[in-house]
Amino acid sequence: MKGIFVSKFRNFLWIFVLVMMVISIVACEKQVQVKEKQEEPPVVKEKPVVVEEKPKVVEEKPLLLEDPPLLLEDEEETGPVADNSRCHVCHINYDEEVLAVTHARANISCEQCHGASDDHCGDEDNITPPDIMYPAEKIRPFCMGCHTSEKIDIAVHKSVMAKPDAKESICTNCHGEHRLGYRTRKWDKTTGELVQDDKVRMTEKQEE
Asked: Cα 123 from chain centroid?
């Protein structure tokens, strides 16, 4: 009886030892796995590389105040340029008018055609005429004082020059816009007499 008990106890002991060994092995493997995981370097997600675009530089046109003075730096000028600034104080519409600009580039000023006109420039009421004015029949003869027929003998002028009446072939009908579309004052261009006046005065009390 005692021998049977001892035999069973031995078997139980062996089974217990085997179970403990299995448990120990499993526990060791888990510890190794945990340790390996701990030793692995953390995975760092790389941020996407963003390429910053340089802002586009838009070249804007300069403001009018920054523009070079008319004619003074013009590529077409080849010599001295006429200074018409005194006239442009009132007649600013001629600052860029083709006929005035073309002549200014050739150093031909307003005064060379219309005289100094000092009284006209100093009259704030604008009732004093310029020194020189041109009725229709005198425009072509005056222009041809510089622009002789030899210089302007081109096909487009032939039909114009063939007209005997200078009133019918006025240079300024085709060249430039050298006239005012609306006037509050008008003078007889031969005598200088004031023939139209709106009676507006700047320097004295207006008539009632």
From this structure: 37
